[in-house]
Design a protein that fits this description.
This protein is an alpha+beta fold. It has two helices and five strands, in the order E-E-E-E-E-H-H. 7% of the residues are buried.
Length: 116
């Protein structure tokens, strides 16, 4: 995993030392308050609370149901986020945006069906 993918506060190992990410380019070694610059592209090993490496692996295949549910969840998240846009969108703008997102969703699902 790249250092830039580690969330702030997470523990990771780099160069044989355990660090906690404190900023976009900084981390502090365990037991030290001194921050060290870590390149964003540095390969690090994410650690869990016990200090064991976190294994992150995608499945070899995804079922159509899991893809469909994932995309539906994404659209719901987009819909909830519409209320946070400033300046506020009109109802017509929200409806047009949701229509466009649903159309993109249908196109995505159709494309997946054609490729399988």
């Amino acid at each position: 995993m790249k250092f830039s993918q580690v969330r702030p506060g997470a523990r990771f190992e780099f160069g044989g030392t355990v660090y906690t990410k404190t900023g976009p380019l900084q981390a502090s070694a365990e037991g030290s308050a001194v921050n060290k610059l870590i390149p964003r592209s540095a390969e690090v090993v994410l650690l869990d609370a016990s200090g064991a490496p976190v294994v992150m692996k995608l499945p070899d295949t995804l079922t159509s149901d899991s893809v469909e549910k994932g995309v539906a969840t994404l659209l719901e998240s987009y819909a909830r986020s519409l209320g946070k846009i400033e300046p506020k969108l009109s109802d017509e703008q929200k409806n047009r945006l949701m229509d466009a997102l649903h159309e993109a969703h249908q196109h995505f699902v159709h494309t997946l069906a054609l490729e399988s």
